[in-house]
Write a structure and sequence with these properties.
alpha+beta; two-stranded antiparallel sheet; 9 strands
Length: about 230
C-alpha cells in the first residue's frame, strides 16, 4: 500500500525546512510523506496543550482570586453589620410622656388658621415684633417624621421675629409665646412652605402648601435681655 502524502505549495516555510534533507522537483507539486507532517502536527499539538494548560492555570488563579475577593467582601459586610451601632434616636422637644399629656391640652385656633397647644407656658417676656429671638425647633410632616431640627444641629436658631425671615405660621406662633415656654404649632399649608421644601437625604420632602408641625421652645430674646440689664 502506497504511503499517504499531502501536497504543499512552493515557497512555503515548511517546504523550505525540508528542502535540505529531502529532494523536491521544481515545477511540479511537491509531496511530503505523512509521517513528517504528522511529526510537525504532533509538535504543534504538544505546544497547544502547553498553551491550554497555561490558560487553564490562569483561569484557575482568576477564579481563586475572585472567590477570595467575594468571600472577603461578604465577611466585611457581615462584620460591618454585626458591629453597626443602632440607629440614633432623633432628639425631640416633646417625648413620649409629653405626647400623652398633650392629648389633654386644649387646642387654640387663631384667625389665620394656625393652631397650637402649649406644652409648657413660659414665665419670661414676650418678644416684640422686630426683635431677635433664640429658639429651638423640631419640624415635622403631619405623620410625625422630622425633616429639620435645631436640636440635631446643636445650635439655637436666631432670627428676627415678625419680619418674614421664617414661615408665617412659625412667626405668628412665637410672637405670642413667653421665654421659657414650649409650644406645638399646627401650621396649615397657607402659612407653611408655598413652594415646598427639599429636605436632607433620608428625611421626608415637604410638598408645596402642605401642612407641617413645629415643636418650638423660646430660649431667650438677645436684644430684650440686653436692655433689661
Amino acid at each position: 500500500m502506497a504511503s499517504a502524502s499531502l501536497p504543499l505549495p512552493l515557497g512555503s516555510s515548511f517546504a523550505g525546512n525540508l528542502s535540505n534533507k529531502y529532494q523536491i522537483t521544481r515545477g511540479r507539486p511537491r509531496r511530503v510523506t505523512a509521517k513528517f507532517l504528522n511529526l510537525r502536527l504532533r509538535t504543534k499539538a504538544s505546544q497547544s496543550v502547553g498553551y491550554e494548560d497555561d490558560v487553564a492555570l490562569i483561569k484557575r488563579r482568576d477564579v481563586i482570586v475572585l472567590g477570595l475577593s467575594a468571600s472577603s467582601i461578604l465577611i466585611h459586610s457581615l462584620n460591618a453589620k454585626a458591629a453597626g451601632l443602632p440607629p440614633q434616636e432623633i432628639p425631640r422637644l416633646c417625648d413620649d410622656t409629653c405626647e400623652k399629656e398633650l392629648e389633654n391640652v386644649p387646642m387654640v385656633t387663631t384667625e389665620s388658621g394656625l393652631q397650637y397647644k402649649d406644652i409648657k407656658v413660659g414665665s419670661g417676656p414676650t418678644p416684640p415684633v422686630g426683635y431677635q429671638v433664640a429658639a429651638n425647633y423640631v419640624a415635622m410632616v403631619p405623620s410625625g417624621q422630622v425633616f429639620d431640627s435645631s436640636l440635631e444641629k446643636r445650635q439655637v436658631y436666631i432670627f428676627r421675629v415678625g419680619s418674614g425671615q421664617v414661615v408665617k405660621g412659625l412667626d405668628e406662633g412665637i410672637l405670642s409665646m413667653k421665654v421659657g415656654g414650649k409650644r406645638r404649632l399646627y401650621v396649615p399649608g397657607s402659612l407653611a412652605f408655598p413652594k415646598g421644601l427639599t429636605s436632607a437625604p433620608g428625611r421626608p420632602r415637604v410638598a408645596a402648601n402642605s401642612p407641617v408641625i413645629f415643636d418650638v421652645s423660646l430660649e431667650y430674646i438677645p436684644g430684650l435681655d440686653d436692655e433689661q440689664e
